[in-house]
Amino acid sequence: MNYFMFATGIENSYPTIQGGRVRMDEMERCRHYELWRRDFELVQELGIDFLRYGPPIHHTWLGPDRYDWSFADETFSDLRRRRITPIVDLCHFGVPDWLGNFQNPDFPEQYARAFALRYPWVQLFTPVNEMYICALFSAKYGWWNEQLSSDAAFVTALKFIVKANVLAMREILTVRPDAIFIQSESSEYFHAQNPAAIGPAEFMNAVRFLSLDLNYGYRVCSDMYEYLLDHGMTRAEYHFFLEQNLKHHCILGNDYYATNEHLVRPDGHTEWAGEIYGYSVITSQYCARYRLPVMHTETNLLQGPLGTEAVTWLHKQWANVLRVRNDGLPIVGFTWYSLTDQVDWDTALRENNGQVNALGLFDLDRNIRPVGQAYQQLIAEWKEVLPTQSVVLALPVGPPWQQQEGRLSDVKDSAGERERRCIKAG
After folding, report:
1. Where are the beta strands (DSSP E) in 288-377?
2. InterPro entries in the record, alphabetically (predicted)?
3. Domain range for 159
């Protein structure tokens, strides 16, 4: 694979609300279970080769060593036949009922290994989607899953979620040593409303990095170290993250929406600030911190009353991607998320209203929206122009339909040698 990764995704969030009684399964609400073949056809019609996609964990992982792969077998076989490369989303804002919620440490490395064994041709993974947002909405804001609202619950959820991501990466690498992990994470920034708000804003701007700091073994500042230990993380747990050495398998996937920048008041309360810095400025902060190839892994905007709002946002985001690239940062892909409209994201899935959100490249009847037409044209114009990703990736991305078992063995041997060299080099 020697070109820029233009992508979309099938929205597959599935958190629980109302004390766990209601699961907000976006694949069901957006009719993907019913129309998945048509959805894959639409991906092809747009000229898209990469799809953020994953089986619903709550229907697939039935218990310890118990799985129902029937839906995944059909869909992943069809993706491979169509030559669409999946970026596999294993855990997207929820866990099966039998696991409870994110205060439970027992997930999902077993599931990740089982998936990798069943589909050894898959190379690209997002083991746990938006770890920071998942912990924030579940355990700090009290919106999803455990619906708790405390720093202790947030730190507990965060350490278990990130540890699950790390352990999932390790398990997948035992099966597929050349696996590449695209960490889709929200890129945030907090602006102080006035001088009295500088302290709270600085604190929040440190917290926003915590999930990736732990995931990549980046030493946190003293304030964050005290915050973690004061709210339930042990020294041993912190050092577990420092001892990981998986960065050479990673792409820093970051998401940017109009709601990702926040205005902070002196009392610590926040409100959306709109687009002040924009994707390119905030991405440069994340790149400087982690020094990894980057991919814009999520964005969207409502179509709006004029019918052009989403198209304008697409072009603005693409201009930011080109700015990142022209600034010399190694950016390898871009994603409009998602393929179709979504349901109830206007309340961040907190309320089960059935409200359709016009965020997709297609509506829920699978009619193309203006932003879908604009994205199709953008891909056609830029797809063969941008430089190859091999310039910045430590491991090559191989088309899954070309990967036979014998070739996979050769790839594993080669990847294993690369990994030994990286570890030796520190």
Report:
1. 294-298, 331-337, 342-343, 356-357
2. GH
3. 5-425
Structure tokens at 394: 């430590």
The three-point CA angle 129-132-134 to 5° equals 60
How far are the Cα atoms of 166, 180, 226, 415, 424 from residue 418, in angstroms, in the given order? 19, 13, 36, 5, 10
Number of domains comprising the chain: 1
- Full-model pTM: 0.93
In CATH, what number is assigned to the domain containing residue 300?
A: 3.20.20.80
**pLDDT in the model for residue 411:** 47
Give the span between the Cα atoms of 130 and 211, in whole angstroms. 9
- Angle between helix 370-382 and helix 309-326 axes, rounded to 10 deg: 30
Q: In 10 A of CB 4, how many CB atoms?
A: 24
| Closest to 264 measured CA to CA, from 206, 196, 190, 208 | 190
SS3 233: coil
Length of the chain: 426
E-assigned strand segments in 43-202: 50-53, 61-63, 66-67, 85-91, 124-128, 180-182, 185-186, 189-192
Of residues 404 and 222, more confidence is placed in 222
Of 86, 101, 52, 98, the C-alpha closest to 361 is 52
| Closest-CA residue to 258 (of 198, 317, 204) | 317
State the DSSP code for 129. Answer: S
Q: How many Å apart are CA 32 and CA 12, to the nearest integer?
A: 9
Q: At what angle do helices 279-290 and 309-326 cross, to 10 degrees?
A: 40
End-to-end Cα separation, the chain, in angstroms: 28
Residue 388 has pLDDT above 60, yes or no: no
Question: 383 and 4 in contact (C-beta within 8 Å)?
Answer: yes
pLDDT tier, 392 (very low <50, low <70, confident <90, very high otherwise): low
pLDDT (0 to 100) of residue 426 = 40
Task: Report the distance separating Cα 253 and Cα 281, nearest Å.
Answer: 15
> And the tokens for 15?
């958190």
Give the list of residues 6+ apart from residue 2 with CB closer than 8 angstroms, or none: 388, 389, 390
Average per-residue pLDDT in the chain?
Answer: 92
Report the range of poorest mean pLDDT among 236-250, 289-303, 398-412.
398-412
